[in-house]
Give the backbone structure.
Amino acid sequence: MQITFDLFADSESEQPRRAEQIGDQSWVLRGFALPHIERLLPALESVIAIAPLRHMMTPGGFSMSVATSSCGELGWITDRSGYRYSAVDPLSNQPWPAMPDAFRELAQAAATQAGFAGFIPDSCLINRYAPGAKMSLHQDKDESDYAAPIVSLSLGLSAMFLFGGFARSDKSQRIALLHGDMVVWGGVDRLRYHGVLPIKPGRHRLLGEQRFNLTFRTAG
Ligand code: MD3
Ligand code: FE
């Protein structure tokens, strides 16, 4: 009896782990990362100690409200010359930090759960949202192979995610993404428009006044 009680010492772990289908080949895995948070947060800290979060410039000359960094062989960058993947961090001119095993293993497990066994991410983009930060509707088109899924992990403050169609003007579904939720998008849903509404002010027990989203991709 004592043992089962200890399993629920952290109230967030009481969230049932369940899969919600949001598209023909897209799934929200509620609470999927919760059993691994204690390994994930130190790994995240060690990555951003080497490759600090920064507000990159869009090709149009605006600073992103989201602060970004990356780990893995390739990192997503933007500047006045455009959006692309780079093997080096433009701040340091050094390779991005290695992808922590805890990250890769979690992303692979989530992909497998959603029907994409054999997913090998070579890039993890780290997005940090302070309250008010948002991401406008866009498609992810900078990767070489659209057959691979994209896997995301949400940490900290919750977000309202917009999941649209194949034209910017298509109606979007709104999906709340909470600490520990993972999402897998693949196949026919890979090129759907998506975005994030401005993050509401708040304080998360572990992460404070911020939301992190980690996006795992096969980019190269
Ligand atoms: C849906 N990030 O970094 S999760 C991005 O929460 C991005 O930070 C959001 O969109 C965030 O590009 C959303 C990731 C996501 C990534 C790719 C997708 C959702 C997707 C591709 C197709 C459909
Ligand atoms: Fe995106």
